[in-house]
Amino acid sequence: MTASRGERGGYTALSGKRRVETPDGAVEVSLPEGVQPGEVLRPRGKGRPRVGDEGRGDPNLRVALELPRAPSERERALHRELARLGDEASK
Q: What's the per-residue H, E or C state across 1-17?
């Protein structure tokens, strides 16, 4: 089972817990700091029940990045600042 959930901009750069809807209901997933779009997370025991066995499987959760279609001026300013900081760090 694979599920995707889009995260807005900078949220994927920060660690924390997020609720993700799966076919079997919502699960809480820990996002590690710096997780990248396209990475697959496998929270143990949060998937579908195992057939003929106890427990639940591990779902595959693909991280997706959502960018705002119409960012606010504040969001634009923050993205410019992040770009500037990234440029400085790469020097």
A: CEEEEEEEHHHHHCCEE
Q: Which domain holds residue 10?
A: 2-89
The whole-number average pLDDT for the span 84-89 is 84
Alpha-carbon torsion 79, 80, 85, 90, what sign? positive
Contacts of 32 (CB under 8 A, 6+ apart): 15
Confidence class for position 74, pLDDT limits 50, 70, 90: very high
Provide the whole-model pTM. Answer: 0.60
- Structural domains of the chain, count: 1
Q: Summarize the confidence of residues 43-56 as an average pLDDT.
A: 82
Do 40 and 19 touch, CB atoms closer than 8 A? no
CATH classification of the domain holding 80: 2.60.260.20
